[in-house]
Amino acid sequence: MAWLAWVLFGMQVLCSCTAAPPAPGAGAALLCPRCDDAAVEAAADLALRHINADREEGYVLSLYRIVSAREQPQEITGSVFYLILDVVDTECHVLSKKLWKNCNLRSAHSTVYGQCKAIIYINQARNITHLNTYECTLQPVPGKYIWSICPDCPIDGSPTKPEYLEAAARSLAKFNAESEQTHYFSVLNVTRASMQWVVGPAHFVEFLIQETSCSKDDKVADISMCEPLPPEVAKIGFCKGSVVKGHVEQFVTTSCEIYSQQEPATEEENQEANQTPGKSTQDQQASPSDANSFSPHLEKTVGWVKILPPSNEDITFHSLRESQNEHKDRKPVPPKAVESAQRCDGENTQVNKPDLTKSVTGPVFLPFPEEPSPSDSCPGEAKHPEGILHPLITRKPATV
Q1: Ranges of Polar residues compositional bias (predicted)?
Q2: Which residues pair with 233 in a beta bridge?
Q3: C-alpha angle with apex 307: 302 to 311, nearest 5 degrees?
Q4: Architecture of domain 154-260
Q5: Domain 23-146+264-393 is of which CATH architecture?
Q6: Distance separating alpha carbons of residues 150 and 36, to the nearest angstrom
Q7: Which of 52, 97, 100, 244 could bridge 265 with an S-S bond, Cβ 3.0-4.6 Å?
């Protein structure tokens, strides 16, 4: 009976997902940490912050759920995390530089959801966090789900249609007349648009505005004739407005946030963004020369965000993964020198073979794992389990 217990114990050790890191010089096998592990949660938070900071268009993405997490311990200090994240967009434009945790989620009828794959390196000892690559595919919630819960909700429209451009212009005119800004602003572009019937047709718009050279001390009849200020000094704004046409008159609303092109996040947000998981600010005072000698080995972040057109098809988070696989052109080139190692689920994976003739000066990045983590803790719990996304996210992925 004792020998049977030892056999079962040995099988359990061999099949364990989160095996101990290999000895130095042997390469680093991919581990499978739990999706609810504190280090994984922190890595997902940092990855999403860096994704949002890297973008110049669209809205700040918020974490909905951690789908998969793989960890690659480095021969130098630190680990590379390979993450799949379910995300939803928020009401904050990325130019606001706001952290995703400080942004409000959108209402059900205007929600855009999707998945991001991210490769991020975290080195606590050197106080370094580096997002290597990311790929995000997003999709508006299918219309049939919106109609089933809110048949009278606003319907999304094309931001380039004349009626929405006119609504943005009228909303901006109200802002120019009431604001204390020293210069007039002009419409840069309409980013979101929708329509609803109230007492009459109501058009809702979200749009970017830019500061022009025309002073508000002068009366300007046509704002489109004003030249924009140079990018290095011009202020950029993000506005939400509406125009409701009644039987007799029109009702115009506007609400704008103004920030300069180079405006950083707040001091509190900067401190949070630079905080490496598991370390206090005082613990992270790494030597500048130590970090500077390491940074040249970290390449510029490469990534993209694709938004699919609206569809009434049954599109889940999982089926969006197929769209991500269509884009191969911007992925990092796989390493040439590789050796086989045991992955945490017992299958083979490709792991970089270190060059023992050279000192290790930077992290090693592998191609993104083809299969998600087999850990029974993945996918993790949804951060916002209620609402229209719940039936979409809880479906099991189709077997390929």
Answers
A1: 272-295
A2: none
A3: 155
A4: Roll (3.10)
A5: Roll (3.10)
A6: 34
A7: 97
